[in-house]
């Protein structure tokens, strides 16, 4: 490994937020994984997945990784592969964030676009394409983020212990966005292995089939799933919130305009879920959440008024206008 640590994720800051909610009796903390070098917590996942193949001898310099991705893992894998001299092929669908795809290409990735399948199941279509490409490229591997134990292992060994260390081992609830469910499963395994009382709150998208949800149209990538990933069968969160996409938009804008943290749609969903749960959280509680990724790739969607109105049919500034009015009145 590189002696200066450029290949590995780092212990991102965990900071206390005091302006996000009007709830001084509850301590709210955010782990800023948006600061990882590739811009998301998927840097941890990608590192673990690639390292496992290298350690087993299945992947060497000059080899090829093929993976289905909606954005963040693709960016992280593209970065992880380029510094190891490995080719990377990202299989994306039409919902993929354009900025994320551009970043993958900037790292030298080859991008395969899967057009809308007849059944509407984009994730299943991407996974079929991965299998086709593996057959066409002997020796290539897929990191299988949906089923590989090295996905949750990354969060068992780094994400959860880092949070607990930062909070002196005292945490009542952790809110985690879900797609492959690798992050929440790794955190769950850590909580159970260490006998912690921390409750794990899964934040999912409306239209996702995770945890018994009903399939529906989803326009924002990175949250939820169209099929049930293998890893999710082991995940048993204490609570599940299903968030409409317009609430993700409002959550993102609330976080940006109250705490100065520009985050992606999945983190906006977490803000919305915390807001819903806030009235029932006991006074004195300590709650935390992951800032899964940066909002920069979402500037043309979540943070774009025209995109929100055209695609979601809602007003994007519902929170922003109220905040500005409150500030003017103070």
Can you give a write-up of this model?
- This protein folds into two domains: 14-39 and 149-329, Rossmann fold, CATH 3.40.50; 42-142, Rossmann fold (3-Layer(aba) Sandwich), CATH 3.40.50.
- Helix content is 38%, strand content 15%.
- The protein contains ten helices and ten strands.
- The longest helix has 17 residues, at 150-166.
Order of helices and strands: EEHEHEHEHEHEHEEHHEHH
Radius of gyration: 19 Å
Protein structure class: alpha/beta
Low-confidence stretches: 1-6, 320-330
Q: Got a strand count?
A: 10
End-to-end gap: 53 Å
**Rough outline:** globular
In CATH terms, what is the fold-level topology of the largest domain? Rossmann fold
SS element count, helices: 10
Could you name the key traits of this structure?
single chain, 330 residues, alpha/beta, Rossmann fold, 2 domains, 10 helices, globular
Question: What is the element layout, followed by pairings?
Answer:
Layout: E1 14-17, E2 27-31, H1 42-56, E3 64-68, H2 72-82, E4 87-93, H3 98-106, E5 110-114, H4 122-136, E6 141-142, H5 150-166, E7 173-177, H6 182-193, E8 199-205, E9 239-243, H7 245-259, H8 265-277, E10 286-290, H9 305-312, H10 318-329
Parallel strand pairs: 2-10, 3-4, 3-6, 4-5, 7-8, 7-10, 8-9
Antiparallel strand pairs: 1-2
How would you summarize this macromolecular structure in one to three sentences?
The chain has 2 domains: about 15-40 and about 150-330, Rossmann fold; about 40-140, Rossmann fold (3-Layer(aba) Sandwich). It contains 10 helices and 10 strands. The protein has helices spanning about 40-55, 70-80, 100-105, 120-135, 150-165, 180-195, 245-260, 265-275, 305-310, 320-330, and strands at about 15, 25-30, 65-70, 85-95, 110-115, 140, 175, 200-205, 240-245, 285-290.
